[in-house]
From TrEMBL, chains A, B:
GO terms for molecular function: ligase activity. Residues 79-287 form the AMP-dependent synthetase/ligase domain. This is Phenylacetate--CoA ligase. Pfam families: AMP-binding, AMP-binding_C_2. The lineage of its organism: Archaea, Methanobacteriati, Methanobacteriota, Archaeoglobi, Archaeoglobales. CDD domains: PaaK. Residues 338-434 form the AMP-dependent ligase C-terminal domain. Keywords: Ligase, Phosphopantetheine, Phosphoprotein.
């Protein structure tokens, strides 16, 4: 039930009330973890603390961290705090190797989750009159069902297409008059490409809102998405361990993502030392969900790099703080000759160059004892037909721009449009051939 | 909210009350179609009738039929009776050719649908303690989300795996302690096969309930499924035009499917003449949904062949009539030398022969002016290694059994296990090569 131009009144809760609620919830969740999850009881006992030691928000630093490996080691239900009969849903994260990370939900967890995603959609203007096409995987991935339930709750007409069959997807957009979409940015750019092949003018579709998530993307990609579909593009952040999407989301300002402070306790820590960092300092996002019944994780290390943008009230009126869009994911970070490189930095540079198309790939090789980084870049069609001289000029431009951003020598291969693999879900941008040696 | 051993009290509504409710609803739905869908107003005017002419259940025969072609011709929203802003969901049937059949739902339609599928699941014993693994496609196919929402409503732990990745699916069954599954019968048999390859004993899984639908299957297949997984196998019937699954379902008796009489008006008609047939007479199932707000279809020709099993109260206590399991789908019917053959008849015969494996294919060819039907049959491993003489004896057995059932000469090819294609969704059993001439 909307509350004015907000989905829930908690979005504009006065800061002192919000703080009170957060303290209450933090104590509740710590008690829950301690009483019902042997893993946490043991850890807290080893650290010499009990739930009584957690009285204020600042006390969170006394609590143990939880890592992705902890989740894997406790597969499938080791961190669950309720009787199995209370669980109503299982999701799994797309584990690249080893055991998957299982997340579990009670009925109330789902209710909270639906409302958090609904807050996000309502915040960017999705209403019951909208036609919401959900172009991400359903089933075990949280992105599909997470957005599906929320858009339905708002009363939008949900078109649950999932990924794949891009031509048909485009046809449905036309036939159903789709006004809002949810996709990974790379799949959206792929859709635009197919539309061009089919002669469908994506700028003339009734689309007005795009939610893009599951991979970090930059403001330069935003410009491309907004131009391609003539819509407003919003950054969506979430992870299955924190329910799924709906953890943080851009408001109409498109400047930072509101993180739902009544449901998540936010910290930024130094990835090496685990020390809490202050406002504006870049580090790893650490989240403690404050309302999760089924799996009350404490100080979860997301591996995502960002910073807190400060607590100034946003012009949208929401009292929940903002984080900067994800700068990189620790999992995606490449170390080349001792220097940390995020694919999102490369994306940021490339998407700002008009000659460069929408697709690229990063290849890391080892030449003797030296790491080499090569960025394969698709050119726009109209550029590629140019003279050889031009070609070499563009290549130098790209190389210089990348080297300036990354502080490292980079090889650049210009390739024809359509050369590189396309993705319907999360794009796999990095090919690290060093591992195969 | 369960009502004793029933999900909803309507399941055991006394017949006179049920009849009263049905008449009221029929009049409501006819009025709705007439007032809001130009297609029906035009048709009814041409037939010289108005909603006032529909006063009793028997008056349904005065109404026009609706066909699959009508749905296609009115793609996408021509038959929708509400403002588009009232729609909250779109599904589509897997149209094999031409335009897809779009179905639309209001919030109330979804609520009714969820409860109908929940009735079915609750009827066969699914409870909040169960782990329900949903092994069918999500997204636009109604089978996935239809069962998902209903199992969740009951409070079971839903594992939304979808199809594909059969080895992992098996691992989840083991790891999560899956007690109930939903799949097509052919995918279930495929899972059993993969389990054998991996050395997983499917009889020792905690499975106890199986819901099988989306393709017609026989009692002989039931025996195989029940033995393979040591569970009780129930037949699920539905179609997207009638919301999806949850139209009719077997109760614990496993003898006929209760069709929810408060939501669907059932007729059996002669497929040629459209004349209503009586109890026990085989014909085409025609359904009029009595509660659909978004798309109030009148007398929808399902193309499915079955018969009404009579109105004797079932030992389960439900007052809703039963239909026999689907004998064949008009769409699947093959005409060979003037004789109608349903793949389900062939399945029925083969699954009763112990030498025969779980997979077969029907190939139709034209030899000059003569149609030929060849059934390719996978043998069980242990049989195939036998002597040539034995081999020929089995082939003759299969041939004789098929000819007895179909009244037509049939070629039989015995093939090794693993030769024929496997399916994760609806099996494609028939390869009609005549069409390619």
């Amino acid at each position: 039930m909307p509350f004015g131009s907000y989905w829930q009144r908690e979005e504009i809760m006065p800061l002192n009330q919000l703080e009170e609620l957060r303290v209450k919830r933090l104590r509740w969740v710590v008690r829950r973890a301690y009483d019902n999850v042997p893993f946490y009881r043991k850890k807290m006992r080893e650290m010499g603390i009990t739930p009584h030691d957690i009285r204020r928000i600042d006390d969170v630093v006394k609590l143990p961290f939880t890592t992705k490996d902890d989740l894997r080691a406790n597969y499938p239900f080791g961190l669950v705090a309720v009787d199995k009969s209370e669980l109503v849903r299982i999701h799994m994260s797309s584990g690249t190797s080893g055991k998957p990370k299982v997340v579990a939900y009670t009925e109330r967890d789902l209710e909270n989750w639906i409302n958090m995603v609904a807050r996000c959609l309502y915040m960017i203007g999705v209403r019951k009159e909208d036609v919401f096409q959900n172009l991400v995987s359903y089933t075990l991935f949280t992105g599909g069902l997470g957005f599906h339930y929320a858009a339905e709750r708002i009363g939008a007409m949900v078109v649950p297409t999932g990924t794949g069959n891009t031509e048909k997807q485009l046809q449905y957009m036309v036939d159903f008059g789709t006004t809002a979409i949810h996709a990974t940015p790379s799949y959206a750019l792929r859709i635009k490409e197919v539309a061009e092949e089919k002669g469908i003018d994506t700028q003339n579709l009734p689309l007005r809102i795009g939610c893009f998530g599951a991979e970090p993307w930059s403001d330069n990609t935003r410009k491309r998405l907004e131009e391609a579909f003539d819509l407003k593009a919003f950054d969506s952040y979430g992870l299955s361990e924190m329910n799924g999407p709906g953890v943080a989301f851009e408001c109409e300002e498109q400047n930072g993502l509101h993180i739902w402070h009544d449901h998540y306790l936010v910290e930024i820590v130094d990835p090496e030392t685990g020390e809490q960092l202050g406002e504006g300092e870049k580090g790893e996002l650490v989240l403690t969900p404050l309302t999760k019944e089924a799996m009350p994780l404490l100080r979860y290390r997301t591996g995502d790099i960002t910073y807190l943008m400060g607590f100034d009230r946003c012009s949208c009126g929401r009292t929940h703080p903002k984080i900067h869009r994800i700068i990189g994911r620790a999992d995606d970070m490449i170390v080349v000759r001792g220097i940390n490189v995020y694919p999102s930095q490369i994306e940021h540079v490339l998407m700002n160059l008009p000659e460069v198309g929408d697709h690229f790939q990063v290849v890391i090789t080892r030449n003797g004892s030296l790491d080499e980084i090569t960025v394969r870049v698709e050119m726009r069609d109209e550029i590629f037909t140019g003279e050889l001289r031009d070609f070499s000029r563009i290549r130098n431009n790209v190389m210089r721009a990348l080297q300036k951003e990354l502080n490292i020598r980079v090889n650049v291969d210009l390739v024809e449009k359509g050369t590189l693999e396309r993705f319907e879900g999360k794009a796999k941008r990095v090919l690290d051939l060093r591992k195969e040696l």
